[in-house]
Amino acid sequence: MTKNTSFAAATPPRAEKRPVQDTHHGVTRSDEFAWLRAGNWQEVFRDPSLLDPQIRLHLDAENAYQAELMAETKGLQKTLFAEMKGRIKEDDSSVPMKDGPYAYGSSFRLGGEQPRYFRTPRDGGEEVILLDGDAEAEGKAYFRLGGVDHSADHARLLWSFDDKGSEFFTLKVRDLAAGTDLADSVSDTGGGGVWNAANDGFYYTRLDPNHRPSKLFFHMLGDEPANDRLVYEETDPGFFMGVGGTRDNRWVLIGINDHETSEYRILDASRPDAEPKLVCARETGLQYDLEEGGDVFFILTNADGAKDFKIMTAPVADPSRANWRELVAHEPGRLILSVLGFKDHMVRLERKDGLPRIVVRDRTTDEEHTISFDEEAFSLGLAGAYEYDTEVIRFSYSSMTTPAQVYDYNMRTRERTLLKTQEVPSGHNPADYVTRRLMAPAEDGELVPISLLYRRDTPLDGTAPCLLYGYGSYGITIPAAFNTNCLSLVDRGFVYAIAHVRGGKDKGYGWYDDGKRAAKRNTFTDFIACAKHLVGQNYTAHDRIVAQGGSAGGMLMGAIANMAPQAFGGIIAEVPFVDVLTTMLDASLPLTPPEWPEWGNPIASEEDYRIIAAYSPYDNVAALAYPPILAVAGLTDPRVTYWEPAKWVARLRELKSGDNPVLFKINMDAGHAGASGRFSRLEEIAYTYAFALKVAGKA
């Protein structure tokens, strides 16, 4: 990589070295920047003003440095922001979804940052605002709404908010007739709750000091939260717990899981004093999900070797494992993603040959039909319905060239009704763009899908810049969906590409297995293979590729930076999980024990230690000619703590060769998701895109 001369000359901050050593399995490491982790990090998540002044001074210096290097892009950032904002219908509104006498939806006002929740009479009429996010956010540097759920009698709204970015949510109850909140207020929750059948109380999870949802409580309206009944406590720190309900309001479902094992307990929603009933005890590697079905539960599971999942049924009177009966058999290569149950139908979302599809099953005849589309690459979202006794479900469709479309679908008549097409106020002609699906040969011969978007007039002679996005962890699939923001790059001659690397479930569950733990290296080599294939097919050149990924995708960015810095012209790592080994060795951190099935447990296993140590980005920084790198983080992020990118950037500057800069931008008022408002979030995207354009010589 040659010296990059597009950035202004400025002196970067240099973090003081204070080496700390640790030894595991006979291996001793030295961490010279460990002091950047605040000893009181739990308190900082709740009150950022408690951050150690020396750490704050260093982070402020980082922000000043990146601002200086990006100063000449200020005008470009404003232009990009205006473009992206111009593609958003500012007063956009969802299509209300019917539930009993009402239909519920959300909307934005002109210039509004936060959503408003409203309802109308079932078949249309005057909108009544139930919750105004802008009003609730007033005066707060950060504000994010969590769960919003109306009671079955339509009298109250259970809603939550986080005003620090640390994802400690406060639950409140709104009286919809009065338009005011009741005295009931519960802090330190997971962000959602489930009403009981009588609509006079709700179930919720409370987070412990290490940010784990370990206790489920029942709150009766009017009681003091301190007196709430403890319904269930999960004592294993390796498992997360969540609570959900069914559309018929009969059951409360307590879901407990890590990344490879799950367990459910059920509660009769009409009995607040009931004790949870175990469905199937956790068994390492056994995954299952419950879905209502009247007198049965539908069970989506990988039991009995069903790697790509099958669907079982079990009677609600006794849904234990012995009573599971197969309904939809396992079919290798067809990954069943989710199931929705209704009175007369069952709906499943699945992926086959890399593309999603919706399958509807008549519960009386067992006849099935598929909702199909014809584009080469596209995205489907299954919204379902509020009601259990209905023939109509809702789904969304988009592709990289086609704006999102929302449909109602009658499961009996098979009639598809287009309710809404995403408006792009500044204009969008799909014919101006091309979307393609390529297959890149990986290091071991596997074929890695790449979704592409570019303007029809973009020269495909190797001169076009390219933004190559990747994730590749937790089985998460990045959809080939419509994205108005990336058009700001594509309209400037970029090829926008998504690398569907192993670690996701793009080609079935095996695609996930082949990108985790001992096979994690495949995620990184797949991404590099995608870059090489794009170059080999004349879409771009290596010094024109800007790689981008966030969170675990940010870890991917750190790994490919170490493994193939010459293959990229720039790297954007957002909230990057780059200090993998140190984090997985610290059982006190919020996500560590539940993450061991994904990455391995380096405390207990020397093999896991050595596997992680071999790719952990922070541990493998070397005297290499790295391309320009931008790291972005949030101070109160409980998922990827701020000190991971802070340490990584410090070590990169210490060891790298050449003059390419390493920038670190940290939002001192936000967490993992960045800025909370829809427009302030666009400002952050405009910043990262300005970096990409600058690196590509397009700024």
From TrEMBL:
Occurrences of domain Peptidase S9 prolyl oligopeptidase catalytic (ranges): 482-698
Transmembrane stretches, start-end: none
Region (Disordered): 1-27
Molecular-function annotations in GO: serine-type endopeptidase activity
Biological process per Gene Ontology, one example term: proteolysis
A Pfam family annotated for this UniProt entry: Peptidase_S9
Entry keyword set: Hydrolase, Protease, Serine protease
InterPro entries: AB_hydrolase_fold (IPR029058), Pept_S9A_N (IPR023302), Peptidase_S9_cat (IPR001375), Peptidase_S9A (IPR002470), Serine_Peptidase_S9A (IPR051543)
SUPFAM superfamilies: alpha/beta-Hydrolases, Peptidase/esterase 'gauge' domain
Bias-annotated ranges (Basic and acidic residues): 14-27
Source taxon at top rank: Bacteria
Every Peptidase S9A N-terminal domain range: 12-421
Protein family: Belongs to the peptidase S9A family.
Name of the protein: Peptidase S9
